[in-house]
Design brief:
This protein is of the alpha/beta class. It folds into 3 domains: 132 residues, HUPs (Rossmann fold, 3-Layer(aba) Sandwich), CATH 3.40.50.620; 101 residues, Serine Threonine Protein Phosphatase 5, Tetratricopeptide repeat, CATH 1.25.40.80; 150 residues, DNA Cyclobutane Dipyrimidine Photolyase, subunit A, domain 3 (Orthogonal Bundle), CATH 1.10.579. It has 20 helices and 5 strands. The chain has a 5-stranded parallel β-sheet with strand order 3-2-1-4-5. The chain is globular, with a radius of gyration of 24 Å.
């Protein structure tokens, strides 16, 4: 520190790796590129108050997961004589301070395709340009960046099947390479004066919801085709949260899946399809993909929506799913489709209500997939289930939970199967006809 109390600038040239949705050391594209610069790498993570202020739950499970994962990253870096510096401020403020304190030659980070992230990254790239600092955004969150899988005319796909075919062709031509972190990787040393914020400093409490370990279960992937629709069994990988925050490599998972399960690989391609959609059509986060449906004014009531959120619709499969979601931060994918269809088509509630509720509670919440899935279920989005495809929750339960094992698990303390059976909030046949009539107002 200088005599006037200011921090002495360190003139040693450094590269910054900015962790965001890539919370791992191995097979991290931007981290590898930063290390390849030959400069010592300063690893940082920024809790952005512009993002955190939208989170309503004090015990938000995602914040607990990120906080715990950052501690593991920090411990791994300390074994290498470095540390992870975690900040709680706007990225602009953090970088202005870092540029004042040290000789930053470049920032390396992995791309994020969400609208706010693009705005944020554009601002940081602009700040770097003014400071004469290099800015590098690389592809890591997906196997193929949005611009890499396009039609022959250079336009984006809006139907999944042809997108999937083009994606698979690209994958077979140039399967992604995976890179281990080299033992000799050169990092900036630890700084004992820097204190990383704890949950309380961020304004949050520890969530009781825990995430599964980032383990790729070959048995589940191999039998995914047979087990993926059965909510009563452990037939899905539960890796969504790890893909969301990058605690596993999408390249490793896709390469592994390609060898044993095309059906599971297709799920990963759906994820990339939605990332491409949100990149080219950012309006879909707030409005239907298809403009014709912007005319729809969903008449569903707040009372019906509240009953849905509490798992009190009188349809066991829907209610079991909603209770599983609130209790665990997870809902089985088949049940997600049924619950979303029920809210938008049986109750005619605005799809954005459900999308926001899922966004609040899902541990594996991913904006692109959540928006895409909700618009698909509501019949208003890209490659959507047509509006006249309306799931019958009773028939779905008979087909995918025939022994009631899943609904019993979540409704065992309720009276669904007792003498005082909960009455359905709306009768299916009536709801179906009402839905068809509602959508017919824009389909003349």
């Amino acid at each position: 520190m200088s005599g006037n109390g200011t921090v002495q600038r360190d003139e040693t040239p450094v590269a910054i790796h900015w962790f965001r949705r890539d919370l791992r050391l191995d097979d991290n594209t931007a981290l590898n590129a930063a290390l390849a610069s030959g400069l010592p790498v300063l690893p940082i993570f920024i809790f952005d108050p512009k993002i955190l202020r939208h989170l309503k739950l004090k015990g938000d499970s995602r914040i607990t997961f990120i906080h715990d994962t950052l501690q593991k990253l920090d411990a791994a870096l300390r074994k290498r004589g470095s540390m992870l510096r975690v900040f709680f401020d706007t990225p602009e403020n953090v970088y202005r301070r870092l540029f004042e304190q040290m000789s930053v030659r470049g920032i390396w980070c992995n791309e994020d395709y969400e609208p706010y992230a693009r705005e944020r990254d554009g601002a940081i790239a602009g700040l770097c340009k003014k400071q004469g600092v290099e800015y590098h955004g690389l592809t890591d969150h997906v196997v193929f960046a949005p611009h890499e899988v396009l039609k022959d005319d250079g336009k984006p796909y809006n139907v999944f099947t042809p997108y999937s075919r083009r994606w698979l062709a690209a994958f077979s031509e140039r399967a992604p390479a995976c890179h281990e972190l080299k033992r000799a990787a050169k990092f900036v040393g630890a700084d004992t004066s820097h204190k990383n914020p704890d949950l309380a400093a961020l304004g949050f409490e520890r969530s009781p919801i825990t995430a599964p370990e980032p383990h790729i279960d070959g048995g589940i992937i191999e039998h995914y085709m047979q087990t993926r629709d059965l909510p009563a069994i452990a037939g899905t990988t539960r890796l969504g949260v790890h893909l969301r925050f990058g605690t596993i490599s999408i390249r490793r998972l896709a390469t592994y899946a390609a060898a044993i399960s095309q059906k599971f690989l297709a799920e990963l391609i759906w994820r990339e399809f939605y990332q491409m959609i949100i990149w080219y059509y950012p309006h879909t986060t707030k409005r239907p993909f298809r403009a014709i449906y912007e005319k729809l004014n969903f008449p569903g009531s707040e009372a019906d929506f509240k009953a849905w959120t509490r798992g009190e619709t009188g349809y066991p499969l829907v209610d079991a799913g909603m209770r599983e979601l609130v209790a665990t931060g997870f809902m089985h994918n088949r049940v997600r489709m049924v619950a979303a269809s029920f809210l938008t088509k049986h109750l005619l509630c605005d799809w954005r209500w459900g999308e926001h509720f899922f966004a609040q509670h899902l541990l594996d919440f991913e904006l692109a997939s959540n928006v895409g899935g909700w618009q698909w279920s509501a019949g208003i989005g890209v490659d959507a289930a047509p509006y006249f495809r309306i799931f019958n929750p009773i028939e779905q339960q008979k087909k995918f939970d025939p022994k009631n094992a899943y609904v019993d698990r979540w409704l065992k303390n309720d009276n669904f199967f007792g003498t005082e059976m909960r009455l359905p909030i709306v009768e299916h046949r009536f709801a179906r006809e009402r839905c068809l009539k509602f959508f017919s107002t824009v389909h003349h």
